[in-house]
Amino acid sequence: MTTAFYPIGTPGQAWGAQERAQWLARQRVQRSHADEVVAKIDALRGRFDVSQYGQLDYPSGHYPLLAIRSRGWDDALPVMLVTGGVHGYETSGVQGALKFVDRHAADYTGRCNLLVVPCVSPWGYERIQRWNALALDPNRSFVIDSPAPESAALMALVAPLRGRFLMHIDLHETTDTDESEFRPALAARDGKPFEPGEIPDGFYLVDDSENRQPAFQQAVIEAVAKVTHIAPADGDGRIIGSPVVAHGVIEYPLKALGLCAGISDARYTTTTEVYPDSPKATPEQCDDAQVAAVRGALEYALAHG
Questions:
Q1: What positions does the domain Peptidase M14 occupy (predicted)?
Q2: Does residue 8 belong to any structural domain of this protein?
């Protein structure tokens, strides 16, 4: 007999409409996108250009999708993309992106054009949820004819600039709830068995296995190491099941998996992973780790072209 490991669905059977509706009914607003994200973006309008590139329209909420651009955009300069909150529950990705713009984006005036999307998934941000309201993972949905409106809107925003991006950094977290909630939910949704894993204690990066940039990754790791600790490999030389290819670095095929960091065709790409549940890291350190990662990525890309 197969034991249920998640309160929704039948073990071994993928969810249908009824199970997705049950899952949606469990989701509750726990914080305010308007107060914690939109208000901070609005406060930046005097220094940067802010635009709405789309809107999420779910029965359970309507959300503007907002992007921040360098003022005085110069087509002769390289374009750098910073994205956060693709998974809405990953707080430091959102707040780290906002903190970077507020405190450091002006340092790059005349050096590059910045396009920053601090919160790709505002519905998920409010509910501290990895998925969107359709029980889809936006960070597996950056594909042609994407079924996730968050992903489709970001791809449409980026499309006119594809080929001009020099760098794209996508800001994420790996949390204890990945193991206690989100991976069990994924297995249940897809009718697969849940296989427990191990959450790494510390910061790490995900490089693109189809466009490896090891020196770039290490530059980012070195910048972040000044702020917080880097995740060690487990006993098998892996982080979240993937071989560690360098200190604090694993690899995924970004485009094949429909990941956000694969949408820009930038020369330099990476996905950050902060561990906010570590006893050795505070929320401020987590935000600062994301800021350090962005700055380290920008400086390397600008120095090496």
A1: 30-305
A2: no
